[in-house]
Write a structure and sequence with these properties.
mainly alpha, Arp2/3 complex 21 kDa subunit ARPC3
Length: 174
């Protein structure tokens, strides 16, 4: 029964990535993918968190309204998105419940930076390598990354209370 519940949750979070990506598709680099994958890792651990990133980003990349990414970029996007599950699982293993509000906010902002850079550095690298010229394209991609960094630095601390509520529901014993 537990495995079926977890599989269902992974599917729901993956679908949530796809739906919310449609909703924010008119706002370049502003999306909730990173937070959703981070929360999945925080709630259920490394493997489920990574699966949410792989599946959710795979759906979004394959059925994107602007067209499907070329395979090397699609793979980089899926692997980069899955890294957020590792960051979320790391936070779960810390003593986060005892931290002060200020410390928690700082750690969440740093987590958002980690999730964003773990996605965009490989994606921008592969994009620049595939489409050339490498350095101008990589630098331009990294400049767009700043938009996501700012958005995620606000979203992670702002929405973390939702993750804590889900954590309490999923782990009633503590």
């Amino acid at each position: 029964m537990i495995r079926l519940r977890l599989i269902t949750r992974i599917a729901l979070f993956s679908a949530l990535i796809y739906v919310l990506s449609w909703g924010t598709s008119y706002f370049p680099n502003l999306n909730f993918i990173f937070f959703i994958v981070f929360v999945a890792g925080f709630l259920w651990g490394v493997v489920p968190g990574m699966l949410v990133g792989l599946i959710g980003m795979g759906l979004w990349t394959a059925f994107n309204p602007y067209g499907m990414a070329v395979p090397p970029i699609m793979l980089a996007q899926m692997l980069g998105a899955s890294a957020g599950g590792v960051v979320g699982a790391w936070l779960r293993c810390t003593d986060w419940q005892r931290w002060s509000s200020a410390r928690r906010i700082v750690i969440l902002v740093l987590s958002s930076i980690a999730c964003t850079l773990l996605f965009y550095i490989p994606v921008n690298f592969v994009d620049a390598w595939v489409f050339q010229p490498f350095w101008p394209r990589f630098v331009a991609g990294m400049l767009w990354t700043v938009v996501s960094l700012g958005f995620n630095a606000v979203i992670f601390p702002l929405l973390f209370k939702v993750a804590v509520r889900l954590y309490v529901r999923e782990n009633p014993s503590g």
